[in-house]
């Protein structure tokens, strides 16, 4: 009797889970199947869930329709440099705040923490003006007048991403958990400040590099707001911006739209399935409290 | 010489971060405050107008609409996100098979960019050929132009927003659940407490800190909603889906009213700070 009740309970649990999972995944399945349907299928009266004919050529058509190579190159460059650079600078700062003593350390750190509270959208207007006024760049004079500064350059998309209050905070927390004896032993062996970072702290940073790296990669690759504000030239477009423009240009070619959407999302989807455990870990790390 | 090196080195190590932070966060933060008290159209220098922008806000019906929409979006997304997130997490935590697959299915919408999400739903909600209307027609219901109808546009955007956020809540809840000791449930079982009773007497109270964290995080995020709205509806029809950030963008980068846009941004900052303070006041007492 008890067993029967239990197996009934299990079935209900699975039924609810499957229902929710299917509902969640359905839009993505429709996106994929739509991307593979031929033009004729859209014109016909009979609509099917699966494509009648699987047109993988849609992907080639969608990719040829606009300058995707340029957009992918841009997104790739921006993401790789922003992620690698921010990981390096954030762990370096985190190490300093956690392990080195210097005047004003705690004051500076509290100032940094304030940044955690400021949404990117709040500072976007002055940021735009600062980007426009970077001296000596983009035709600007020493006072930052006359040209476009860093607007329409990789710098505008990369440089602000290199710092990050959260990354520094997180790295500091991580290094604080290291035993102090580690430093003392290293110091006796004649290991200097920099050497300790490179020889001890950085090699042991695997878990935070994975977590921060994933969070940053997703944030930068998926960023739409900053490229929208900081770039206007087609040559500087990232994939997200490219996708939104593509939607406007091919507004009735739904199959090509969905193919492009799929291609733009694919790098992160693959990354998610390869590093699923780390993805989950990275999300949890974002919820640690100080 | 060695002494000097040791005094200076820590500053050099944090310099790149601090410099970027100062130029692209702190300076803009001070500047946006200043700009919010000015009239500034980029072409001519900023003109001090005191509280002019804030007064204008009070009579700006579109801003009030944006405020209202943002609040509605917040309520309309946070409830399904946390409720469904909790249900899935609790079910997954009951030692089901294929947990990784379920988790992946529920979380996947959360890693796709908002532009990709918006494009997918533009097609799903397409009035003439979209799968949702096709399905409704099949069942004999009336079809609607979801995103171009002032009554349905905002709810449609909310559905999309909730769809992308559930996975995050599920994962955070799941980790919270895994932190609850089995012994609590065993003891309750011995005392004869039913599963429902256990859920309300053990699970819910033990998850309080996690719930609080999600409440704060999801709230802050939903007040920043922009990309989805921008691509799905552009804020229309007739401003029925415009949000605070959408108005900041419109005022700043389409109408070049940088001063007014700054004052709108300050409102967003104040709301965010208020939520963070509440978090600090009531959240720090509980340990995650």
UniProtKB/TrEMBL annotation, chain A:
- Which GO biological process entries does UniProt record here? transmembrane transport
Query: Where on the tree of life does the source sit, at the highest rank?
Result: Bacteria
CDD domains linked to this entry: TM_PBP2
The cross-references to Gene3D superfamilies, in alphabetical order and at most eight, read: MetI-like
Per UniProt, what is one Pfam family of this protein? BPD_transp_1
* GO cellular component terms, semicolon-separated: plasma membrane
Domain ABC transmembrane type-1 intervals: 72-275
Enumerate the transmembrane spans: 12-33, 76-95, 107-130, 150-171, 200-221, 252-275
The protein's location, in the record's own words, is: Cell membrane
Q: What membrane topology is annotated for this entry?
A: Multi-pass membrane protein
Q: Which residues form a coiled coil?
A: none
Q: Which InterPro entries match?
A: MetI-like (IPR000515), MetI-like_sf (IPR035906)
> What keywords does the record list, in alphabetical order?
Cell membrane, Membrane, Transmembrane, Transmembrane helix, Transport
Task: Write out the similarity annotation.
Answer: Belongs to the binding-protein-dependent transport system permease family.
This chain belongs to the protein called Carbohydrate ABC transporter permease
Which organism was this protein described from?
Paenibacillus arenilitoris
From TrEMBL, chain B:
Q: Where in the cell is it found?
A: Cell membrane
The UniProt entry's GO biological process terms, in alphabetical order, are: transmembrane transport
Q: State the InterPro entries in the record.
A: ABC_transporter_permease, MetI-like, MetI-like_sf
PANTHER family with a match to the protein in the record: ABC TRANSPORTER PERMEASE PROTEIN (PTHR30193), INNER MEMBRANE ABC TRANSPORTER PERMEASE PROTEIN YCJO (PTHR30193:SF37)
Q: Transmembrane ranges?
A: 12-34, 71-92, 104-124, 153-174, 260-280
Q: Which organism is it from?
A: Paenibacillus arenilitoris
Q: Which family does it belong to?
A: Belongs to the binding-protein-dependent transport system permease family.
- Major localization class: membrane
Cellular component GO terms held in the UniProt record: plasma membrane
Keywords of the record, alphabetical order, are: Cell membrane, Membrane, Transmembrane, Transmembrane helix, Transport
Annotated Pfam families: BPD_transp_1
Give every ABC transmembrane type-1 domain span. 67-279
Q: How does it sit in the membrane?
A: Multi-pass membrane protein
This chain belongs to the protein called Sugar ABC transporter permease
């Amino acid at each position: 009797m008890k067993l029967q009740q239990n197996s009934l309970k299990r079935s209900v649990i699975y039924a609810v889970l499957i229902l929710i999972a299917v509902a969640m995944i359905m839009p993505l399945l429709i996106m994929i199947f739509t991307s593979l349907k031929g033009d004729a299928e859209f014109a016909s009266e009979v609509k099917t869930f699966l494509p009648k004919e699987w047109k993988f050529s849609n992907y080639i058509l969608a990719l040829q329709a606009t300058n995707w190579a340029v957009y992918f190159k841009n997104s790739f460059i921006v993401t790789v440099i922003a992620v690698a650079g921010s990981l390096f600078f954030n762990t370096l700062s985190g190490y300093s705040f956690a392990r080195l003593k210097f005047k004003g350390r705690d004051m500076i750190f509290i100032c940094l923490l304030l940044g955690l509270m400021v949404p990117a959208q709040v500072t976007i207007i002055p940021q735009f003006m600062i980007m426009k006024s970077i001296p000596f760049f983009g035709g600007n004079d020493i006072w930052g007048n006359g040209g476009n500064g860093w607007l329409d350059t990789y710098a505008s998309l990369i440089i602000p991403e290199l710092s990050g209050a959260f990354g520094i905070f997180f790295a500091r927390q991580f290094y604080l958990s290291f035993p102090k004896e580690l430093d003392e032993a290293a110091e006796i062996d004649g290991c200097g400040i920099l050497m300790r970072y490179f020889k001890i702290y950085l090699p042991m940073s695997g878990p935070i590099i994975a977590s921060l790296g994933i969070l940053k990669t997703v944030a930068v690759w998926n960023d739409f707001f900053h490229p929208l504000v900081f770039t206007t030239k087609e040559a500087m477009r990232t994939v997200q911006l490219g996708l939104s423009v593509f939607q406007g240009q091919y507004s009735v070619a739904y199959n090509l739209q969905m193919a492009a959407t799929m291609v733009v999302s694919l790098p992160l989807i693959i990354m998610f399935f390869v590093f699923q455990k780390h993805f989950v870990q990275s999300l949890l790390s974002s919820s640690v409290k100080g | 010489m060695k002494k000097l090196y040791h005094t200076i080195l820590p500053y050099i190590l944090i310099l790149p971060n601090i410099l970027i932070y100062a130029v692209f966060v702190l300076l803009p933060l001070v500047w946006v405050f200043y700009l919010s008290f000015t009239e500034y159209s980029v072409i001519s220098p900023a003109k001090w107008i005191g509280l002019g922008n804030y007064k204008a806000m009070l009579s700006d019906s579109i801003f009030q609409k944006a405020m209202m929409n943002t609040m509605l979006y917040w309520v309309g997304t946070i409830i399904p996100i946390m409720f469904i997130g909790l249900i899935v997490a609790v079910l997954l935590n009951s030692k089901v098979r294929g947990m990784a697959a379920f988790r992946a299915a529920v979380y996947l919408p959360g890693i796709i960019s908002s532009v990709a999400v918006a494009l997918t739903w533009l097609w799903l909600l397409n009035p003439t050929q979209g799968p949702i209307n096709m399905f409704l027609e099949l069942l004999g219901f009336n079809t609607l132009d979801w995103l171009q109808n002032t009554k349905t546009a905002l709810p449609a955007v909310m559905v999309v927003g909730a769809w992308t956020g559930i996975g995050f809540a599920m994962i955070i809840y799941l980790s919270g659940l895994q932190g609850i000791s089995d012994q609590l449930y065993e003891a309750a079982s011995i005392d004869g407490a039913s599963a429902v009773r256990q859920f309300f007497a053990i699970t819910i109270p033990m998850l309080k800190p996690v719930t609080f964290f999600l409440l704060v995080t999801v709230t802050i995020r939903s007040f920043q909603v922009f990309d989805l709205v921008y691509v799905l509806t552009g804020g229309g029809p007739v401003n029925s889906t415009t949000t605070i950030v959408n108005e900041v963008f419109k005022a700043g980068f389409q109408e070049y009213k940088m001063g007014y846009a700054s004052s709108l941004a300050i409102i967003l900052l104040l709301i965010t700070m208020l939520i963070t303070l509440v978090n600090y006041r009531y959240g720090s007492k509980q340990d995650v």
